[in-house]
Amino acid sequence: MTRLPLIVTILALAAAPVSVHAQAITPAEAAQIDAIVATNLARAGVPSASIAIVRGGQIVFAKAYGKQSETRSTASAALPYQIASVSKQFTAAALQLLENDGKLSLDDKVAKYFPDISGADRISLRQLLSHTSGLQDYWPQDYSFADMAKPTTPQAIVDRWAKKPLDFDPGTQWQYSNTGYVVAGMIIEKVAGMPLLAFLDARVFKPLGMTAISQDDAIGPAYPQGYQRFALGPVRVERPAARGWLYAAGELSMTARDLAKWNIARISRTLLPPEDWAEQEAPVRLSDGSSNGYGLGVFSGVADGRRFVEHSGEAVGFLSENIVYPDQQAAVTVFVNADFSDAFANIAQQVTKVVLPTPTDTSNAATTAAARDLFDQLRDGTLNRKLLTGNANYYFTPVALGDYQASLTPLGAPKSFDLVRRPRLRGGFINRNYRVTYPSGRTLNIITYSEPGDGGRFEQFLVQPGE
Hints:
- There is one protein chain.
- The chain has helices at residues 27-44, 88-100, 125-129, 154-161, 178-192, 196-208, 247-250, 256-268, 274-281, 343-355, 365-380, 390-395, 398-408, and strands spanning 48-55, 58-66, 81-82, 213-214, 227-229, 235-237, 252-254, 299-303, 306-315, 318-325, 330-336, 416-419, 424-426, 429-437, 443-450, 458-465.
- By secondary structure, it is an alpha+beta fold.
- Strands 2-1-11-10-9-8 form a six-stranded antiparallel β-sheet, sandwiched between helices. Strands 12, 13, 14, 15 and 16 form a five-stranded antiparallel β-sheet that branches. Strands 3-7-4 form a three-stranded antiparallel β-sheet.
- The two termini are 34 Å apart.
């Protein structure tokens, strides 16, 4: 099970690889991280967290905080947490490994392996992994539903949910489906001739020096306990789900450090061939050409100018977030033993700002000043057309200039004029976006394109309403 993507900026932006040397976490950074975790745990009432950080392609930080169970007084980073749907990328990798072995193809139809599943002759293995199969999700709830108090099996899940009529024709829509991953796991076991976890242990975990166990076995005094909370009531120990409910959709338990080893393999393109990693991360497109950024077991996109690969997970009493920044050779992993707040996501986002601070770019001071000057000219009705290209001069007709002046002048002088996104190349011009803020709190957005180089003329200067 997963909470839908925590990073919502899904854009198509190419980023050049950056060579980054492993940089140890400084004492000041460690203090910042400790404060971030402590503040978020306290604010949300979440008992504990375990985090790992990769920087420069190496693990540079791994630490646990808080109360991991009712019987443990000291947090240990060596204890495995239930990672839930973060497991899906391992299921995807298992199918890719079997494809590389020549034992199957991701374009095979499910009917080749389990013909009695609904739509089996139309659903490909790739569609199982990309949540585009049409199979109804068996666990959409953010809690343990009644049947989860009793043990189940993959076959029982398939018999109950994967033999219902499809929710849509395969490839036409996207719907998160744990059911599809259960089917994928059964196919892996049928083709590999061994249990899924045994296959992953032999082909993934041991080669990477990782240790992972089934979440069904990660229960008892030696492991973290999951916690729940009803509204704003007291934090209570959560009763684990009975055996068998997550399987290939999210059955793994491991330490944050172990998951960081997998992240390093993704960054360095080892274990799997580079094209397999790229295949996982490539957003799958629906029949109408649209995509929400999901590939095979992971979301991918761009946030704050950085390409990311991400997945979160939710088990009974546990939440997890795993974000990889391949071009910066960095990753942040956060596990918590509670399923009732966004503390795990907040910690991940705030720690990322420590690990990968947004660089201060002073090179844009001149262009920002030029943009502010042009904005003021438009407010005053005194446009210097030498600052514009032919197209921009064509755009600024007398009507356009009149509307700009009439609508902007009454707003008065702005309080601030800020570059809000790092410049990027498009169509031979440099795109820069600005936010204008007034003392009243009103904002305007400005989208510009200008010629490269110092003193480049503006090809575009559009002022639009802000928030």
